[in-house]
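Residues pack. Consider this:
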Amino acid sequence: MPFLRNLIHQPRKLFIRRALFQVHLWAGVLISVYIVVIALTGALLVFEDELTATTLPPHLAAYNEVRVASISAVVQAFRDAYPGGEITFLTTPSPAVPAYRLRAMDADKRAINLVADPATAAIYPQPRTWVEWVHDLHLYLLLGSAHGVQVNGIGAAILLLLSFTGVLLWWPGLKNWSRGFRIDLRH
């Protein structure tokens, strides 16, 4: 019972607190790089549509809400250009991104990025843009969807560990717990 009593009343005297401090310190150092990357890429992705519009080919027709090619015309143009291919992702044009954007697999199951003219539905190949790279860095840490989600889950677990160890390190003891909520302006 002395361990529990010390944990509740005088936690700063316990050896486990010093060990937890080391875990907290090094987990914080490791996770800080991860948090900075996620924060910076997330801040960029707030403007994802506007940045994507700057990467579109210049020869596309201007976006006109009244004169937009139908989705079926874009799908047919894709089938004509890539027989046996399969569309995996399609976005319609908007004032922010004035073109159809497609991700697809060709007949050999290779990933391709395409842009379709908003007026004529003509299909043009487009290399992977830096905006897509930032998007994949933010969501998947450039590891692909399967592994990137797992690594993000590990990052979340480390953040949870930091929160838990932070609370344990903060705990000043039952007698002094309210002191932890005061702000001393002299310091």
Remarks:
- The longest strand covers residues 86-91.
- The helical segments are 2-9, 15-45, 48-53, 71-81, 130-140, 144-170.
- The mean pLDDT is 84.
- Residues 52 and 131 are 6 Å apart (CA to CA).
